[in-house]
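Hello forum,

I keep getting stuck at the same step: I have a sequence, I want structure tokens, and every attempt I make locally crashes halfway through. Rather than fight my setup again tonight, could one of you with a working pipeline run this one for me? It's a single chain of 120 residues.
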Amino acid sequence: LAEKGSSIHEFEVLISIGRMVTLSQPVVQQVEELEKLRRDQDAVLRKINKIHLKLSETLQEDPKRAEKLPEKLWAKLKSFYDEACTLAEAEERLAGQCIRSLDARAAIESQRSSSGSRMK
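Reply #2:
Ran it on my machine without issues. Output:
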């Protein structure tokens, strides 16, 4: 994303057809929120992987000890999985909103360009 002019409320993005499209502030905010959700998901996945690594190492060292790991650890792992699911669902909803917003914006841009070519 690149800031357009002096306005902080409009940004430009190069879309796949190679044209620049001005995005409204709400769309930019949605994209920023998507980026935040991805960072949050990455952090939760690192925590899940850390626990899995600990479980794997414990299981290799002493399988009987692995069976006796504290319930607190399993509860923590479950809570991380729940959090990851919640973040993924939020990302899916927000991505859908972004797609609908971008489709609407593309339709407006298309109408502008087709009405502009008819005027020539």
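The longest strand covers residues 11-14. If your local run keeps crashing, start a new thread with the error log.
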